[in-house]
Amino acid sequence: MAAMEMTEKLTLGLGPMDQTHVEFVDAYNRLLGVTGAELLAAMDDFIAHSVEHFDQENRWMAQIGFPGCHKAEHDRVLAVCRDVRKRMERGDVALGRQLIQELPLWFDNHVATMDAALASYIQSIDYDTETGEIRNPPKEDGEEGGSCCTPPAAATPAESQPA
């Protein structure tokens, strides 16, 4: 399996999110080339990172009222990782390797869709991820409450670009 690389497509222009993506790539890459107890330890580290990573985004989403399907995907991925980890411990290393092989594809898609929508919305409302302050709240004109993983009242990338 090839190492995952931190590419431009995984960089969304939101510093704390981009840093967490670097850490995700690093945690993933530690899964490669290890076996036995080292693989289980690397999987434990990967899961621990993912919990922190997803909790960070989930806190942001809760604070800004972002749709819950993004959190639901985090929950599903963690459930799969934890289940596969248990099976690996019981000897099903092939299933663990299958998960490891498929994680980059999932992550690329997740970043390009759900994380990109979240980052765009955070930027459009000028949300400070450190303080939780929303400096440019969405208008209260009934435009809020977007559909699953469509940010409420978010500016689209085309709208946020200067003309």
Could you explain how this protein is built, in words?
- With 163 residues, the protein is mostly helical.
- The chain has a single domain (22-138), classed as Up-down Bundle (Four Helix Bundle (Hemerythrin (Met), subunit A)).
- The chain has helices at 15-29, 36-64, 69-89, 93-124, 157-160.
- The termini are far apart.
What's the quick description here?
Helix content is 62%, strand content 0%. The chain is mainly alpha-helical and 163 residues long.
Keywords, please?
163 residues; mainly alpha; Four Helix Bundle (Hemerythrin (Met), subunit A); disordered C terminus
Oligomer: single chain
CATH domain fold name: Four Helix Bundle (Hemerythrin (Met), subunit A)
Flag low-confidence runs: 154-163
**Domain tally:** 1
Give the helix proportion (percent range): 55-70%
For the record, the CATH class is Mainly Alpha
How much of the sequence lies in strands comes to under 5%
- Using only CA atoms, what is the Rg? 17 Å
Distance between the termini: 44 Å
Q: What is the overall number of helices?
A: 5
* Shape field: elongated
Main beta sheet, described?
Answer: none
How are the SSEs placed, and which strands pair?
Blueprint: H1 15-29, H2 36-64, H3 69-89, H4 93-124, H5 157-160
Helix pairs in contact: 1-2, 2-3, 3-4
